[in-house]
Amino acid sequence: MRTGVRSDGSGQLRPRVEEVRIQGLGVIDEAVLELSPGFNVVTGETGAGKTMVVTGLGLLFGGRADPSRIRPGADRATVEGALVIEPGGRVAQQVEDIGGEVDEGELIISRTVSAEGRSRAWLGGRTVPVGTLTYLADDLVAVHGQMDQQRLLQPARQRAALDRYAGDDLVKPLRAYTQAYKRHKQVAAQLDELTTRARERAQEADLLRFGLEEIEKVDPKPGEDVELRGEEERLSHADALRGAATGAHAALLGDPMQTADGARDVISLLGEARAAVDAVRDFDAELAGMADRLAEAGYLIADVATDLAAYAESVEADPARLAAVQERRALLSGLIRKYGEDSSAVLAWAQSSAARLAELEGDDDRIGELTREHEELTDRLTELAAELTGVRQAAAERFGRAVTEELTALAMPHARVVVQLTRSADFGPEGVDEVELRMAAHPAAPPLPLNKGASGGELSRVMLAIEVVFAGADPVPTFVFDEVDAGVGGKAAVEIGRRLARLARTAQVVVVTHLPQVAAFADQHLVVEKTSDGSVVRSGVVTLDHEGRVRELSRMLAGMEDSELGRAHAEELLELAAADR
């Protein structure tokens, strides 16, 4: 059962790193870190492997693999992390989308780096590209170490963070801008389609118009091609059909031109058969039934003979009609070859093509309407973008002052952070503003991008100041800081500890520090201890109780764990930190 799990203030579980296992990394043979949801500090003597903790966390979330960091004699370095995440939340959904598993809100991430430089990663039990860990890290952790890519150095992150810092003042105009931008983009795409393909559309309209005129001239009827095919067959074989009907009629009723002695037609033969059977039908019911059937056959043959005579009379050779039918069929066949498999399909093509032609012929009117709408939307976007710029500029000035004040308290009294807004050439999804955080190291220095205006240790402090100011506006579940206190001591160190504790109210914070003033503010204190041979084993990472913290802070203050003066100072620091909470 997990304890100490914090929410994000909305009642939802706040993601955090619960446990990290490191093997074969730097001086660390094997180490296990159990982290609290609040402020965690990692301390230890120089060379004990504190920085490897940050390096391990960086690897866990897709950081660059450096085979030179692998422990001498080891064939690979392995980092495994257990994270608590919200079941069904964004991160859980991302993991499940790639086939990984989240077990009751717990996610396992693993990364190995071989001595040859090969790297492999696992997410929720599924092998994934290392880039997947980097992508996932955007929603989980911000690692601030000298060798790590800083999250807030990404321009898109800086704009998004500033927008959240601007708060409610930006929500309404940004929503209005977004709606107008989407419609503006749709209209622009439709205009581009209509204007850039004008020639193709004109050619299409000409082809449709020609086809419709051709069909209109012929004026086909549904099923007409089938009917004409049958009529042509009859007309082409009129003599044969009439001869066949006449011959069949003669066979059934006889030829009146022949003498009676030579007539042996079917009706006569049936009459003889019926007369022979009728003479004795009364003696056997079965034979009587056959006599009735012979009578029925006689009636049927007489009817067929009558129909054959009528058919023979109706069939006439009509060369003029045959020629007309063949000419009509030729016209229909020409249409069928071009527009459909039969006359009905040709008519269906004509119907759909007429609708398409009406659409194409209305393009000029449509272009005019869209052009007017596009101009109106452009004017509207210009107004809304200017409003967004104004809100962002005001927020940028507030933000710059707030971060500069934080830096003053963090022993960087001459540093100044500004937010530079520049206008992009085109409208974008969030406006026309490009946002960049810049820092001037001293009053005479020009503001430079953060990664150029600050040294490694200064950059960590700048990032701490920014994260403290952004806390709540640009929430990240876990922050990791290394060397945030480089070159700092005394009152400034206390202020760093106080600000890290403030940040830990809304996020999990992990800090590697050598300053007791910072360590005193932690919710959980981990110490990395080397064995006599210089390695760090599992038992070498210890979670300290109050007495242990006093001893460790005393060592950090005076270099001696049992110094009375050091212990007194350590107790004073812990009391100060507790009172500050």
Automatic annotation (TrEMBL):
<dbReference type="InterPro" id="IPR003395">
    <property type="entry name" value="RecF/RecN/SMC_N"/>
</dbReference>
<keyword id="KW-0234">DNA repair</keyword>
<keyword id="KW-0067">ATP-binding</keyword>
<feature type="coiled-coil region">
    <location>
        <begin position="360"/>
        <end position="394"/>
    </location>
</feature>
<keyword id="KW-0227">DNA damage</keyword>
<dbReference type="InterPro" id="IPR027417">
    <property type="entry name" value="P-loop_NTPase"/>
</dbReference>
<feature type="domain" description="RecF/RecN/SMC N-terminal">
    <location>
        <begin position="18"/>
        <end position="533"/>
    </location>
</feature>
<dbReference type="InterPro" id="IPR004604">
    <property type="entry name" value="DNA_recomb/repair_RecN"/>
</dbReference>
<comment type="function">
    <text>May be involved in recombinational repair of damaged DNA.</text>
</comment>
<keyword id="KW-0175">Coiled coil</keyword>
<dbReference type="Pfam" id="PF02463">
    <property type="entry name" value="SMC_N"/>
</dbReference>
<protein>
    <recommendedName>
        <fullName>DNA repair protein RecN</fullName>
    </recommendedName>
</protein>
<keyword id="KW-0547">Nucleotide-binding</keyword>
<comment type="similarity">
    <text>Belongs to the RecN family.</text>
</comment>
